[in-house]
Design goal:
Blueprint: H1 12-15, H2 27-39, E1 44-46, H3 50-60, H4 64-75, E2 80-82
Parallel strand pairs: 1-2
Helix pairs in contact: 2-4
């Protein structure tokens, strides 16, 4: 019988930001956690929803597109990203 593989998606970087406090986390504060997840072998991430992009703009004055670029730079070109 051939081996079956299970691909696990980490939703921490989506779900963790869906709160009053989570929506106000600066990119520089959560990028080290993204790096740690990558080093742990995670390669499938759901990393944001509409609120994450909106909160960056309205509350933190950060650019959501720079966040997406930075996330991709950290996890590398082969990681599977989902919004």
């Amino acid at each position: 019988m051939a081996k079956k593989y299970i691909d696990i998606m980490d939703t921490t970087f989506r779900d963790g930001f869906q709160s009053v406090f989570g929506g106000r986390v600066l990119m520089d504060d959560f990028f080290p956690a993204v790096e740690a997840a990558k080093q742990a072998g995670i390669s499938h991430f759901e990393f944001g929803g509409g609120a994450r992009f909106q909160s960056l703009y309205f509350y933190l004055q950060e650019n959501a597109f720079e966040m997406m670029d930075g996330f991709r730079e950290i996890v590398g070109p082969d990681a599977n990203l989902q919004i």
